[in-house]
Specification:
Blueprint lengths: L12 H9 L6 H28 L3 H46 L15 H24 L4 H27 L3 H28 L5 H5 L1
């Protein structure tokens, strides 16, 4: 019997069933590829553009460098994801064959659902598209601004906002803490851009890498 001060909120069976039937671990594969791809696109291309912007004020150089990084990064993400997921697929298919042989020999083999097998092409496509979406943000932020300092500031602001959005989306879909997730990706993005900008500026101010002079 409930105490007089207790307040009981009725929860319908449909609500609990819907919550229990939702397996968030099933989202892990595509969510990981999408969120990591978008974050990588944002941070790597923004950092690349900030590094170039530290020593070059030319608008075209900065944008073309970012575009080249977008194409290279999207291809790299797609190939890496394809190889990784294909290896996982090979392992699971081999395990399916072993389980099938065990059942045929009277053993207790597990049942596998073919629909749940990893899809290398799907993972590679999602990863490349996500990277591209993320990389477009700093490119668009810099595309229409001639003033060098303003351009750098707008890139940082646009990337920061996008990191908050992508971090929040990933947290909501994965049912994790939104504020912590956003803070993690934003601080990480700031650090990457600051380190790239600072080191490139430092190397430029010292006259370049020391190795050519050592080798010569």
């Amino acid at each position: 019997m409930a105490a007089p001060n207790d307040v009981q909120i009725p929860i319908s069976k449909n609500e609990t069933d819907g919550e229990n039937n939702l397996d968030y671990s099933q989202r892990a594969q595509w969510l990981r590829a999408a969120v990591l791809g978008a974050n990588d696109g944002l941070v790597s291309i923004a950092s690349l553009m900030m590094g170039v912007g530290a020593i070059k004020k030319d608008f075209k150089v900065m944008v073309l460098t970012g575009f080249a990084g977008l194409v290279a990064g999207a291809c790299s993400m797609a190939i890496g994801e394809f190889v990784s997921v294909y290896s996982q697929l090979d392992i699971e298919v081999a395990q399916m064959k072993r389980e099938k042989r065990m059942k045929e020999n009277g053993g207790n083999g597990r049942e596998f659902e073919k629909e749940k097998l990893p899809n290398p092409i799907q993972a590679a496509t999602a990863s490349a598209l996500a990277f591209t979406v993320g990389a477009i943000v700093p490119l668009l932020a810099a595309a229409f601004i001639e003033n060098h300092r303003v351009r750098l500031g707008v890139v940082v602001a646009a990337v920061s906002l996008a990191l908050v959005v992508f971090g929040g989306i990933g947290a909501v879909l994965g049912k994790t803490h939104v504020v912590r997730s956003c803070a993690r990706v934003v601080v990480g993005g700031w650090m990457a851009m600051a380190i790239t900008f600072g080191l490139t500026k430092l190397i430029s101010s010292t006259g370049g890498w020391p190795w050519p002079s050592l080798l010569g």
